Amino acid sequence: MNFIKELLSDRDKVSHNLKMIFWGIGGLLLLVGFYGWAIRFFNGHIKANYGSIVTWGLWVAAYIYFIGLSAGSFLVSSMVYVFNFKKFERIGKLAVFTALVTLLMALLSIWVDLGHMGRAWHVMVFPNFKSPMAWMIYLYSIYMLLLFVEIYFLLRYDFVTGSNNETLKGKLYKLFSLGSTDKSEESKLRDKKIVKRLATAGVPIAILFHGGVGALFGVVAARPHWHSGLFPILFLLSALVSGGALLTLISSIFQEGWSKNKEIVIELGKMVLALLLLDILFQVSEFLVAYRGGIPGHTAGFDLVISGPYAWVFWGWQGFIGTIVPIVILVLPTRKSPRWVALAGFLIAAGIFGLRLNIVIPGLAVEEIHGLTSAIYSHRVDPHYFPSISEWLLTFGIVGFGMLLFGLGEHFLPTHNESETESLSESKV
């Protein structure tokens, strides 16, 4: 008995240490990010390195990355709440919360990229419905509202039952319960029905808005590197890969995935590996079609990706760290260790960010008028973009903000109750 108690105590220490490291990194990133935010507010875009040739930079890449994490996490949650996939039942609430946090991070990233941040509301009031961007903004709004409502009904019963506690958490639960006091089994069943309907409605919305991000790039005929019918599909696939990979890491930290819930982490690793291999197939197809066609405008962007100044992102960051190493981890016997699988999830999620950079920057760095960048001497007319210190710091701040939101959610929001083993299939639609 003493041995078992010591073992459980060791596991608690590991879980506690992981959370403290997570909190520490998140807090540090948020602090350094304040300097980046200050530069952005007081200097506008002057300190950013994008210009007249490369008009989108790190913040746009971060935006499509975070929005992919959100869509992917939500689609993983739909496996639980729509398709009754019981293996991932314990991470259902975590997946929906992850989708909300990463959505907020994405909107912050694109907000700071706007020339006039105070005019962000214009797209809602004066939309051009011929533009994919206007449709995306409305879909984001519907999606965010859906996430808030779904989280409420996922946690409503827990809020009500915990609201009698006089602690700070109990007071928060009373606030979050929005006046609800029903603790009956009928109310729990009703909540499950509502969650299933919301999750079902959310699946096409998530597919539409993230496929729409791919379409936003794909419809730009003036940029052959983007002009592809595969882009909406590629964006969705990468979203599933990155969202699943992030959940692998997050569940390891916040749901004791190294011990109590290791089966879930290992199953997530299997799913992410399959999706990653499928994503690689589609990416390779893009390269093969472009080079087989041999049209200079189509191959110029890919040349920059694999042999230009951005080759290190493709071969080192995306290729080796984000693809080869995690595939090896998930194929060898290390695939049975939740610690190694969590590491693979982290590397895959980081590698997908490299993929997002390889979509945004090389597509813009190709000269539309040959010789333009050598004819005009200005740092704003330079195809060789690399993010400035202020761009990196602000992005780190957004990441830190997201990490701390995860930590606060884990600390204050109700977690999965182990004794609650009712099958989702019991709910009647």
UniProtKB/TrEMBL annotation:
Domain of life: Bacteria
Alphabetized Pfam families for the sequence: NrfD
Location of the protein in the cell: Cell membrane
GO cellular component, one term: plasma membrane
Bilayer-spanning residue ranges: 21-42, 62-82, 94-112, 132-155, 198-223, 229-250, 271-291, 311-333, 340-365, 385-408
Mode of membrane association: Multi-pass membrane protein
Protein name as catalogued: Polysulfide reductase NrfD
